[in-house]
Design a protein that fits this description.
The chain has five helices and ten strands; from the N terminus they run ββαβααββαβαββββ. The chain is an alpha/beta fold. The strands form two sheets. The chain has an eight-stranded mixed beta sheet, sandwiched between helices. α1 packs parallel to α3. The protein starts with a strand and ends with a strand.
Length: about 180
């Protein structure tokens, strides 16, 4: 059965965005970008909240930029081909290979998990928090960036129950970012 993966970069103190929503500290270098490319290439669909969807709209036309690096062009092509499902109460339309969710989180995930195909991903702290609360995240992929922000948007939501995890993989990149991959125990 397909897994649901939550993968994002966070600061050492557990934030995916700073107090003002800034994410400039998390921009990947070429090595890390290529690793992200490979991970996203292995996905069958990506669930997004409105904010992440809007941030990622950049990639729908990034391949048209004459100054984009090859690894960025590659990511743009991968992202454009990937089906995306957006949960939003404020959007009426979406662009690219994207659709608005019609059902609840549980219904949308169950429908896709029942189909054959590659693993699924969820992005954005708010939406991922709802997935975690529902017990729908099977794997956590954390990219720990060497910065302490002191506040902002947490990677994990406040949880009512402990989630036991098993370490599956670690890797350190030249940029000093540490990747850790856990699955539910």
């Amino acid at each position: 059965m397909r897994k649901v993966i939550y993968s994002m970069t966070m600061s050492l103190d557990g934030f995916i965005a700073g107090p003002g929503g800034e994410i400039d500290w998390s921009a990947p270098d070429e090595e890390l970008h290529r690793f992200h490319n490979e991970q996203v290439r292995e996905l069958g669909a990506h669930f997004c909240g409105r904010r992440l969807y809007e941030v990622m709209l950049y990639w729908e036309t990034a391949d048209e930029s004459p100054s984009a690096a090859e690894h960025e062009l590659e990511f743009a092509r991968i992202w454009q081909a990937l089906p995306k499902i957006v949960f939003s109460t404020t959007l009426d339309t979406v662009e690219g290979n994207t659709r608005l969710a019609r059902g609840t989180i549980a219904e949308e995930v169950a429908a896709l998990k029942a189909q054959p195909g590659k693993d699924l991903a969820v992005g954005g702290a708010g939406l991922a928090g709802a997935f975690i609360e529902l017990g729908l995240v099977d794997e956590f992929r954390v990219f720990v960036s060497p910065v302490v922000l002191g506040g902002g948007t947490h990677y994990f939501p406040p949880l009512k129950e402990r989630v036991g995890l098993e370490l599956v993989e670690t890797r350190t990149f030249g940029s000093r970012v540490v990747y850790v991959r856990y699955q539910r125990a």
